[in-house]
Amino acid sequence: MKIAPSILSADFANLQTDVEKVEQAQVDMLHIDVMDGHFVPNLTFGPNVVAALRPHSQLVFDCHLMIENPENYVEAFADAGADLIGVQYESTPNIHRALDMIKKKGKLAEIVINPGTPVSAISSLLAMVDQVLVMTVDPGFGGQKFMPEMLDKVAELAQIKQEKGYHYEIQVDGGVNDQTIKQCAQAGATVAVAGSFVFKGDPAVQVEKLRQATVE
Ligand code: DX5
Ligand code: ZN
């Protein structure tokens, strides 16, 4: 199981230091939550922050765009240094165009589904994506409770991947801790995002707890 700490729960006044801490813990990617106050009822930051962090980290930057009409910002995040760009199925009538733009910029493309969206809604997009993110909370805030009902979607995606020979990673995001990560791994998730669990203590210790939980 790959681990992707979310900087949503990091210290925004010391972002560089917190990113360095998780990088030293040898995590697999850095999850960057972008919120616009429209698609979700919260605001975070834009491509400038991604560009500011870029020279300080070698990690894969996984930008989760929780913004309306993300196709208007794909280019800006790609140019800012994102390696992987995630767009929410529910955020635009032009979801295929948004994914296509990410690929044309030479970046890894991710489709994200909210708790209310079934896997069947994105079946025609699965062949083209590098990662599928199954939200395990309603997007917008860190520190919410994990929704175990979403694990059926993880298992369904794992089955489709095997049957069709697709290559996408299956990511889970929201309420992941050293208990819920076990269920995610069992269901077939390959990447776990964790925000509050990683940053509520020493990130190195917390990341190790997540790793241990999946090998137990
Ligand atoms: C929520 C974000 C998550 C958030 C997860 O909308 O997409 O990435 O940081 O936070 P935790 O791990 O605290 O649930
Ligand atoms: Zn996220």
UniProtKB/TrEMBL annotation:
The keyword Ribonucleoprotein does not apply. Belongs to the ribulose-phosphate 3-epimerase family. HAMAP family: RPE. One of its GO terms (cellular component) is cytoplasm. Pathway: Carbohydrate degradation. Its cofactor is Co(2+); a divalent metal cation; Mn(2+); Zn(2+). Catalyzes the reversible epimerization of D-ribulose 5-phosphate to D-xylulose 5-phosphate. Coiled coil: none annotated. It catalyses: D-ribulose 5-phosphate = D-xylulose 5-phosphate. Pfam families: Ribul_P_3_epim. The active site is at residues 33, 173. Substrate binds at residues 6, 64, 140-143, 173-175, 195-196. Binds 1 divalent metal cation per subunit. Keywords: Carbohydrate metabolism, Cobalt, Isomerase, Manganese, Metal-binding, Zinc. GO terms for molecular function: D-ribulose-phosphate 3-epimerase activity; metal ion binding. The lineage of its organism: Bacteria, Bacillati, Bacillota, Bacilli, Lactobacillales. The keyword Zinc applies. It is an enzyme of class 5 (isomerase). This is Ribulose-phosphate 3-epimerase. InterPro entries: Aldolase_TIM, Ribul_P_3_epim, Ribul_P_3_epim-like, RibuloseP-bd_barrel. One of its GO terms (biological process) is pentose-phosphate shunt. Signal peptide: none annotated. Its EC number is 5.1.3.1. SUPFAM superfamilies: Ribulose-phoshate binding barrel (SSF51366). A divalent metal cation binds at residues 31, 33, 64, 173.
